[in-house]
Protein 1
Amino acid sequence: EAAPEPAPSPAARSDREHLLRSWSSYADAPPAVIAGGEGAHFWDEQGRRWLDFSSQLVNLNVGHQHPRLVAAIRAQAETLCTLAPYHANAATSEAARLIADVAPPGLNRVFFTNGGAEAVENAIRMARLHTGRHKVLTAYRSYHGATAGAIAASGDPRRWPSEPGPPGIVRFWGPYAYRSAFHAADAAQECERALAHLADTIAAEGPQGIAAILLETVVGANGVLVPPDGYLQGVRALCDAHGIAMIADEVMVGFGRCGQWFAIDHWGVVPDLITFAKGVNAGYVPLGGVILSEAIAERYAHRAYPGGLTYSGHPLACAAAVACIGIYRDEGLIERARVLGETVIAPELERLRLRHPSVGDVRGLGAFWGLELVRNPVNREPLVPFNASGAEAAPMAEFAAACKQRGLWPFVVANRLHIAPPLVIAEQDLREGLAIVDAALDVADRYCV
Ligand code: PLP
């Protein structure tokens, strides 16, 4: 006979009775109450322990409870916890200096927000004011946040319940060689056709009305889509030709995730605006922001920027950013993301692709990878249909459960496993996690024809 379920803890009971969490219903499947974490591991009240292959929401680049980061937050808390943004303070100005220092050349000024969505809202505002135009082009395969403008700018189905959104958003298809919208035969053709489609979209919308092209440098939640070489250069050229601002959304991939400070550094392209959040301080205290080109920032030399937030440049969050950037530098974590990707993750995932019929595609950059799971590797039918939920999504839920049961916390989206471990993960742990993925894929293989 099964042992009776233990009574829920006070934390579990309060959660169930009073909390509404992101993207969730509250009455079904309450989550485990997490009690602590260290490095790439975390554990719940019952002592169940997981290796984190998702860095929470792809933010925890330095792992849980990094002593230097905790100490910096504690020291700032003892000095000055909070401050209105019209004052200057050492933590905020030092964070801005360090961010400008690692940003692409010419991007030299930082506007701070509390997270990614607000960064996107402000970048759109800046692009509109700079160009005097209104329209913003964004990709169908994108996520930019959940506030009014950012969710409208997002392409993925999370936008649907918030529609109709504000006017002025126009969507296009970006490159995605595995499921090409352009019936391209290879990455080079995909690049060429995606750029031609973008140029056509600009022409049809009227370039004189387009303020910005907003895109994730490497598409995150919508598939870990690494653009083919030449695509971002092509977008930059189209923006230059038509006086359009290029906004690189680096909220998920900035600050080392892809093995460079910013993912766009891989292609040497300099956008006009960069949005960041997550990795800037590993999410220890909420922080995001926009990095502005000199040309866009200039407008506000003697005229007030018409936007702001009570907590813009929050000292605790910025002290955490200062420490986190120091950790990236001193521990060589940006380089480590690249090396782990090239020497461990890429070869191991390729092995999984060859071994498991359910693995249709493997792609990624640095410490950011995706496995696309299919029912049929020949016709590429996804393991679960687009926007599946409930019973339709069961194969992916079973796969995720198989990972969790074996002690791995996976990041499962649609028919994909995204792999984004903390950059501090021990190589041995990384290999063990990949071995768990290997074992769990047997569950997915059972659905293959
Ligand atoms: N932009 C991108 C690329 C993201 O991945 C996210 C969040 O995952 C956001 C924006 C929104 O960030 P936030 O959830 O901090 O508002």
Protein 2
Amino acid sequence: ESSSTGAPVQHNAELFERAKHSIPGGVNSPVRAYGSVGGTPRFLVEARGAYVTDVDGNEYVDLVASWGPAILGHARPEVVRAVQEAAARGLSFGATTPSETELAELIRERMTAESADGVLAPVEKVRLVSTGTEATMTAIRLARGFTGRDLLIKFSGHYHGHSDGLLAEAGSGLATLAMPGSAGVPAPIAAQTLVLPYNDLDAVRTAFATHGDRIAAVIVESAACNMGVVPPEPGYNAALTEIVHEAGALLIVDEVLTGFRVGSAGYWGASLADGPAYMPDLFTFGKVVGGGMPLAALGGRAEVMDYLAPLGPVYQAGTLSGNPVAVAAGLATLRLADLDVYATLDAVSARLQSAVSQALAAEGVAHTIQRAGNLFSVLFSDTPATNYAQVQAQDAFRYPPFFHAMLEAGVSLPPSVFEAWFVTAAHDDVALERIIDALPAAAKAAAAA
Ligand code: PMP
């Protein structure tokens, strides 16, 4: 193994051995261990613009973007300054602050979109939490408290964080590790979650016909991005909303990954441009909304949100909820993420998608570029995938050699075929050319697998 400068990768390997003595698997989140691509994870020490640098001084064009938050590019000076200024005023107060209201107002404003039915504004109230996991966990508790029902529907291959009820047939790290679920989840809790195939409305109708008056909520990724990218079929989210509402249940649209990345009003807002209007009851946000700091949120109908304590009977709390430093990062990031930024993300993504596809086609590698707005992933199959079973049927073995050829050439891709690729507004021509130059050799490696 050698670095982009030809020097042996020593330091990363030594650090990984050392980390494994004190941290399970050497990592604090499983996919970081490179389990499905093999090799030594890079220990990063700096991230700036479109680039990350490892402990050996190797620089990589980054297509992970901290798994989404870095839409503006890493360490954007205005965001760093906002964080520094907030930190200087105090790291955490454990009390209410003016900036939390500003962020809640900004989220409400951003989650407003024009549709054929007029202007829709489904997010009336917002609560800030620290992780996407907390946001979805709270949204589900809220839906149960509001409806007085217990059952939850989720979709196979969708990932909503690691709370007990959501780990059945989940995407992201569970897909990467081929884990159907997690040990440590009591059977009675797992039994409260019904897992259905994605993009199959009949499966949803059947579940409601059987258990309708016991189903509290359906949770769905706005566009599935944790089994690679698998967009909803046109009109799917709208039809789902209708079925759910007819049965008196709530629809939770998880925009932790897509929110404020796929467009100004997330995938929900983007989907209204050419599809029917729909009004989810609750949304969850994370990643971009915290600008790279630990911050996430849930929001939705005031009538539902007001079921949260202190107004209502559903409890949720957090020592670091609405942390002032995290809120400063989120506010600065959202304020800078204007329509020009989204246009840049779309353009960068489109250019990259076609370059990847051309390189793979030139080597005769069967593939499909799966996309949801500016998010995309490579599926190693000629047939587009619309659900988890199809995603799992691809030639996944072609990804590790592709990944490592790119890494050797100084491009950091997600270390799993089941993850989306993330572009940033800092991916300029120089960064894109480095990626594009690396593609032919990587495509050859994939073809030879
Ligand atoms: N929902 C979705 C759609 C996600 O992509 C993720 C994380 N990738 C989560 C929830 C969980 O967020 P967190 O990792 O911040 O707990």
